[in-house]
Amino acid sequence: MVLLVGYVLILAASVGTYAIHGNVAVLWVPTEYLAIVGLMTGGFVAANPMKIVKATFKALPGVLKGAPYNKALYVDLLAMLFELLSKVRKEGLMSIENDIENPESSPIFSKYPAFLADHHAVEFLTDYLRMMVGGNLNAFELENLMDVELETHHHEAAAPAHAVTKIADALPAFGIVVAVMGVVNVMSSVGEPPAVLGKMIGGALVGTFLGILLSYGFVAPVANQLEQKCEASGKIYQCMKAVLLASMSGYAPQVAVEFGRKVLASDDRPNFRELEEEIKNRKGK
C-alpha cells in the first residue's frame, strides 16, 4: 500500500505539474512505451537464469503486502521455543521427536499457526532440533553449519532484489536508445514542416523521459522494497539460531529465549516484561 501511495505522489509531482503548463496528451506515444517495456523485459530475461526470473515474479506481489515478520509473530516464536525447550529440560530431547517429525500434528507447533505457515522457518527449526536430538554435534559445529545455511538463504532471497536493481539501473540507458531511434526517424524526415518535426522530436524525447521516470520513480522503489523484505525475513532465522545455541550451551529456557529476543530489531522486539507475561499466560492455558 505504501508503494502505491508513493507512485501516486511521483505521478502527481511529474505528470501532474507538467499538466499545469503543458498538454499531457503529447506524452502519450504508444510506440515509445512499447519499446521501453520490451527493452526492460528483454533485458531482465536475458540477464537472469529462469530460476531467478521465476523467483522475482513470485516475490513481486509481496511488495504490496505488509511484512509478515512483526512483533506478534516473534512473541509466538519465542513462546513456542520456550515451550519446546521446557519440554526438553523436563523430559529429555527424545520427548520432542514426534513434534519434530510431524510439526503439523504436534500439540506444541499447532498452537502457533502463523509460524507453522512459514514452511522454510519450520524446516529450519525442525532440522536443527533433529540434529540436537541425534546428540552428535556440539554448539560450535552447529553454529558454523547454521551460518553457512543462513548465508545461502540470504543469497537466494536477495537475488530478486538484485535483479530488479540491475533493470532499474539500465532503464535510463534504454530510454536513450529509444530517444536516439526517434531522432534517427526525425533526421530522415527533415523535409517535413516544422510543426511535424517538432512533434516527432517531442515524441523521441518521451523515451528519455520514460526511461528515467520508470527507473528512479517506479522500478528502483520495488527493488528497495524487495531488499528490505529480504533483510526482514532473515531475522526469524537469526532468532532461532540464538535460542538453540544458547540452549545447547546449557542455559535454561527462560534465558535461552532472551538470547533470541535480543537479536530482534527494536520495533519488532517485545520487552522483557511483555515476553515474560505472555509466557506465563500461555503456560496457564
Describe this structure in words.
The protein has one domain (30-285). The chain has helices at 2-21, 30-47, 50-59, 71-91, 97-101, 113-116, 119-134, 139-187, 194-248, 253-263, 272-283. It is elongated. The chain has 285 residues and is mainly α. It contains eleven helices and no strands.
Instruction: Summarize the amount of helix as a percent range.
Output: over 70%
Helix-strand category:
mainly alpha
The largest sheet, given as strand count, sense and whether it forms a barrel, is: none
How would you state the average pLDDT, rounded? 88
Low-confidence stretches: none
Strand content: under 5%
Rounded to the nearest angstrom, the radius of gyration is 27 Å
**End-to-end separation:** 37 Å
In total, how many beta strands? 0
Number of helices: 11
Choose one word for the global shape: elongated
Tally of individual domains:
1
Pattern of helices and strands: HHHHHHHHHHH
Question: How is this fold's topology laid out?
Answer:
Elements: H1 2-21, H2 30-47, H3 50-59, H4 71-91, H5 97-101, H6 113-116, H7 119-134, H8 139-187, H9 194-248, H10 253-263, H11 272-283
